[in-house]
């Protein structure tokens, strides 16, 4: 009997497991995940800003995977591709015939001095909770410290996570001010970005609308401002210091360090995959989600890593494992993006949607689109009950 091992219970891993389990294979299927729960990475910014609780964005993996899947809660420490073996932190090693590698993303600091030590990243439940606790402690402290830096927040980077976090935080601020008794006019929200434009993947009018929306709620954007160092209380851009006691580090992500540590041919812990999502020289391994780099066949450029593409990849990877076991040819991965949505708090957003035509949405309609996409994602990973419970 063949053994299929899936690493990581994120969007890619959970979807791959669901597809494999329903394929009626005579095979052993194993899922290895660090935590007993799946977390919705696309909502981590809400946890970090305190507009959502952990229970809103997580569900128990063992309660939703089909009975023919064995779940191992452990941490992968190394993958030996030559020996077809996965090493774990606590348990013994696991051998595999087929591997679906979906170990996901980590924060990228680009080697900037002090970023890792002094910036709060938002990459999993623990880091998002730590960011929220740090922020709330600083706001609470202001009453006794009268240190204005306790009310200053600097967000590094202006990509999706930064903007979505700022939207949630700006929404929550008036309530936090009431709760902790600090003056709103002393709060400063700075967003520092090296590039000349905020959210360049959106149409200029839409991104301008998003920027204005956040500026009206107190966010100050600093574009063309490369970060050169992060200290415990300031973000430096050459000689200019943006001081704050809460520094959020959301400049970008890379793949899991396990990829870099395990001798893959990688760049920023991502591996360029073949058109069937396997990797060169290893037809038994499919690499999907944020650890993979997928060239768009139309222009040769890599697709951005998203939950949307991770779920689509999982369908192809699972089908290709089944085809390989059955001695059939694998199929090419074809991706049709459904569009891009960026929330600006719970009640607004901007979106470019590619469903039944091209739609440019802003305000509450975009926020609704985001909720539908999140719901659909949970439905694809788990079941209707889980989707309704995670509301
Ligand atoms: C705040 C935020 C908002 C986002 N919004 C959107 C959005 O609106 N739309 C969109 O499409 N994308 C969005 N993204 C991107 C999206 O979340 C990622 O592309 C997606 O999560 C990648 O899925 P994945 O399954 O590859 O990895 P992950 O979701 O990172 O899952 C990896 C899994 O592997 C587990 N794991 C990691 N290391 C180990 C180990 N060593 N051993 C065992 N298990 C391990 C983790 O615990 C996790 O369960 C957002 C990301 C963030 C941070």
Identify the notable features of this structure and list them briefly:
391 residues; alpha/beta; FAD/NAD(P)-binding domain; 2 domains; 6-stranded mixed sheet; 4-stranded parallel sheet; 11 helices; 25 strands; globular; binds flavin-adenine dinucleotide; NAD(P)H dehydrogenase (quinone) activity; flavoprotein; Pyridine nucleotide-disulfide oxidoreductase; FAD/NAD-binding_dom
The largest sheet has its strands arranged as 5-2-1-9-21-20
Contiguous helical run count: 11
CATH architecture of the largest domain: 3-Layer(bba) Sandwich
Portion in strands? 25-35%
- Domains (count): 2
- Small molecules bound: flavin-adenine dinucleotide
Biggest sheet overview: 6 strands, mixed
Estimate the helix proportion, in percent.
Answer: 25-40%
Shape: globular
- Averaging pLDDT over every residue, what do you get? 95
User: What is the rounded Rg?
Assistant: 22 Å
**Count of DSSP strands:** 25
Query: Which stretches of 5+ consecutive residues score pLDDT under 50?
Result: none
Describe this entry's structure for a reader.
With 391 residues, the chain is of the alpha/beta class. It folds into two domains: 153 residues, FAD/NAD(P)-binding domain (3-Layer(bba) Sandwich); 196 residues, FAD/NAD(P)-binding domain (3-Layer(bba) Sandwich), CATH 3.50.50. The chain is 33% helix and 26% strand. It is built from eleven helices and 25 strands. The strands form eight sheets. It has a six-stranded mixed β-sheet, covered by helices on one side. Strands 13-12-11-17 form a four-stranded parallel β-sheet. The longest helix is centred in the middle third of the chain and has 21 residues. It starts with a strand and ends with a helix. Bound molecules: flavin-adenine dinucleotide (FAD). Flavin-adenine dinucleotide (FAD) binds next to helix 1, strand 2, helix 2, helix 6 and helix 9.
